[in-house]
Amino acid sequence: MNSPRTPEKPLATDVDVALIGGGIMSATLGALLSVLEPSWRIGIYERLDDVAQESSSPWNNAGTGHAALCELNYTPERKDGSIDISKAVTINEQFETSREFWNHLLTAGLMEGTDFINVTPHMTFVRGEKNVDYLRRRWETLREHPLFEDLEFTDDRAVISEWAPLLTTGRDTDEPVAATRAAAGTDVDFGALTRKLIGLATDRGADLHTNHEVTGLKKQRDGRWRLSLRDRTWNAETRGRTVTARFVFVGAGGGALPLLQAAGIKEIRGYGGFPISGEFLRTSSPDVVAEHHAKVYGKAEVGAPPMSVPHLDTRVVDGRSYLMFGPYAGFSPKYLKKGKYLGLVTSLRAHNLFSMLGAGLKNLDLTRYLVGQVAAAPETKFHELQKFMPTARPGDWETVTAGQRVQVIKWVKGKGGVLEFGTEVIAARDGSIAGLLGASPGASTAVSAMLGVLERCFADRYEDWKPRLATMMPSLGGAVSPIADDAAALTRSERVAAR
Fold this sequence. Notes:
Elements: E1 14-20, H1 24-36, E2 42-45, H2 86-107, E3 117-119, E4 122-127, H3 129-142, E5 152-154, H4 157-163, E6 177-182, E7 186-188, H5 190-203, E8 207-209, E9 212-219, E10 225-231, E11 240-250, H6 256-263, E12 272-283, H7 286-289, E13 295-297, E14 311-317, E15 320-330, H8 343-346, H9 353-362, H10 364-375, H11 378-388, E16 398-401, E17 405-412, E18 416-419, E19 423-427, E20 433-438, H12 446-457, H13 459-472
Parallel strand pairs: 1-2, 1-11, 2-8, 4-13, 11-20
Antiparallel strand pairs: 3-7, 4-6, 5-6, 9-10, 10-11, 12-15, 12-16, 12-17, 13-14, 14-15, 17-18, 19-20
Helix pairs in contact: 1-5, 1-12
């Protein structure tokens, strides 16, 4: 059960819902719709030979369960010195919604296996008096909110050593340091979860077609969409095929922008995308891995994009534990890791050119940061790890190329081109097509994002679905979440468990 690698069915020429891309977003929407409307015919079209190979792959993303417990960019400091926690609260709530949905699928017997999620403390670690002061004020503000009341703070080096020994061993004892810890954080393998969700959808009748690339989208007179597909298998008898769909969701990661542009919907006008690639350092050394069990975020360098905030994470992939540090930013004009080099160039349009130029001029510090990262020598990059982990040895670590991220650029009246660092759903006014743009927090908030798609694109059905959705996710109906914010509780019952 829940394996998407079953023999594929013949390509249907007409479906109710077409999901473009085999990542966590399409998987989540497919699972939701297969439960809400089991009679609908759903087609999933993935250009590669398997699902979860781009941003949803565990080695292509840093998405270990974003809950805003440790990410400083979600709690900015206001000019008056106070800390704004509104975004952190929203992201934490959205992640809880995701966990409620996963919990429902497991307890209802619709999805099997809890190997995709593991209890892993979330920590923030900072150095220097100014940063220590900021972290203390952040903690004091956050702990007043019920979602963060269990967050711990310390500036005691001995306590930090108990929490995460690799952060303090070999460090200058005169350097002020501080840390916060949420002991009930989680590590999520979104690749494994994606496969389970798509497996759920195919178990309930959805058709998965890998090696099928959507090359065109055209709205027909009857309101349906015609998808042009290219069969990428080497021995395909028919290269070009078409499918018509009542509703289309573009969950193609970095490939979503060009496809929405190809669809010609006016809502995509003014939108552009700036691709950012990157690398991580990874170790599977048993001696090193055994000394660290946490997801630890630091503070970003000036001018660095939020996705480049340094972090030293415990990751569990296919039952094996690793440590991963990074990311190191880079640049590639591709919109997908396994995409075309002309991705950025071919996305330029008359309607988004000024957005792109305006955002570029406003973010010259980001440009300088990226240039510096690309030009940095390997020993310089490794020194960044040693700031976190002074005892790190080059021989224990290998370089892993991360996935592509495409930062949203859009035209905002009165501001011009603006570079966005979140995710955004773009939907046609008639609700017949939608797509998701952007990066972090991405996968962790997939359920909330897809609920938004349901509400916007199926307005005539959503009210009927709400009672069922509230059963799956009680917080949607105003009830207290059965898993609340205590991830440890997930290990004590039939709920989502950590191994």
